[in-house]
Amino acid sequence: MKFFENVAKQIFNKEGIPILEGHVAYSPEEAMSISSEMGVPVVIKAQVLTGGRGKVGGVKFANNPGEALKVADEILGMQIKGETVKHLLIEEKAEILNEFFVTVSIDRGARRPVIIASKEGGVEIENLAKTNPEKLIKYYPNPLIEFLPYEAREIARKMGVSSDLISPLGSIIWKLYNVFTKYDCDTAEINPLITTPNGLIAADAKMVVENDSLFRHQNLVKRLHYKRKAVDFVKLNGNIAVIGNGAGLTLTAMDMIKLNGGEPATFLDIGGGASEQVINQALNIVLNYEPVKVIFLNVLGGITKADDVARGVIKALKQSERHVPIVIRLTGTNEEEGQKLLEEAGIPYETSMEKAAKKAVDLCNELKQEMK
Ligand code: GDP
Ligand code: MN
User: Fold this and answer.
1) pLDDT for 257 beyond 90
2) Which of 13, 181, 248, 334 is most buried, by the most CB atoms less than 10 A from its CB?
3) In this predicted model, what pLDDT tens digit does every residue of 67-112 receive, in sequence order?
4) Exposed, middle or buried, 212 (CB in 10 Å: 0-12/13-18/19+)?
């Protein structure tokens, strides 16, 4: 059984092989909010069981949440060698200095496991096998005795990497071989194994577990199929981003916008007890979502504290490169402190939801007039 890259990576990492911070997304909106939360350029990767995604557009980069939304939308639903892309891995984009290749598999002819490694890894590895097979280092560990760290270092040395890399590279080869035996693999592979300013990292991972051994690994497999949720975000067709705390209040805010003749661009529920960080994240999403002309933030503080909201708003607006007018309704727990913070930052606010909704729609209409 072949595992998705994200699952293989979790297992590799559990055995001590470094990976990049990454999260799984099932929709463009989720990709966008993950990218916003990570706050760094990301690589967005189709999760399919076949290799060669890079060559057909299944691996792409995004510099900001807006790009992440677009790129994720392009990759999801794509067909890669007959397989439909249903989920994505969003990873911090690494600065790659070199790409190595290491695989452990079974040489059926030799009836032994074999380690094959090269300092010229990456998407062209199949060509390398044809044109420069001498650049592939092959090593047959004795399956009946322990594979020792010095043997792994010897492979690294034969690969011809610089001397400072022999020890860390040997360590990863050794760990990969241990993954291979511990999980009863047919294949355990890293391509590329990248060198970065932060050391060696598995940028891709492939793991195939022998079917007859799967019963031994069921629990692990189930546990590693995780799904993670950021803020609740639904993309809509209008221009006014609606953000609220709690689904009910957010829906009400949408109704108020509609009632005044406006069209919501988002339904974004920050949930109860949202922290300054969650508010910041929510605003980042809509600030980077291109159709948004006006933001309507509707908060009635309960568990959510108005001063936390104010701080999150101030921070997000300060950091944003794009200027989008925002209408804020802020009342409830700690409202005086929250309102005072907004006043000090020169950000206007309302206390009535009706008034605020009307203001947001009027503002959006004015902007549309200006553009004509
Ligand atoms: P595959 O084509 O299905 O094997 O997908 P990979 O995960 O191996 O990605 C293909 C290629 O994309 C790699 O060989 C890298 O050159 C590039 N790539 C993947 N992740 C990163 C990253 O974090 N940073 C950079 N700069 N390139 C990446
Ligand atoms: Mn690869």
Assistant:
1) yes
2) 334
3) 999 999 999 999 998 889 999 999 999 999 999 999 999 999 999 9
4) exposed
Ligand nearest to the CA of 99: 1
Q: What is the CATH number of domain 232-367?
A: 3.40.50.261
Where are the chain's structural domains? Answer: 21-92, 98-227, 232-367
Supply the pLDDT for residue 371. Answer: 81
The CA distance from 63 to 61, in Å, is 7
Q: Letter for the amino acid at 160?
A: G
Domain spanning 21-92: which CATH class is it, in words?
Answer: alpha beta
More confident residue, 270 or 147: 147
Nearest C-alpha to atom 14 of ligand 1 is from which residue? Answer: 122
CATH architecture assigned to 98-227:
2-Layer Sandwich (3.30)
User: Which residues are bridge partners to 194 per DSSP?
Assistant: 99, 201
Question: Where does residue 372 rank: exposed (0-12), middle (13-18), buried (19+ CB within 10 A)?
Answer: exposed
Structure tokens given for 252: 């009400």
Residue 181: predicted pLDDT = 97
Could you give the CA distance from residue 105 to residue 112 in angstroms, rounded to a whole number? Answer: 9
Residue percentage of the chain with pLDDT more than 90: 80
Q: Which residues line ligand 1 (CB under 6 A)?
A: 43, 45, 51-54, 59, 91, 93-94, 96, 99, 122-123, 191-192, 203-204
Number of Cβ within 10 Å of residue 355's Cβ equals: 13
The neighbour count for residue 197, using CB atoms within 10 Å, is 7
Query: pLDDT tens digits, residue range 28-59?
Result: 999 999 999 999 999 999 999 988 999 999 99
288 in Cβ contact with 63 (< 8 Å): no
What average pLDDT is seen over the chain? 93
Give the pair of three-digit tokens for residue 253.
């805010």
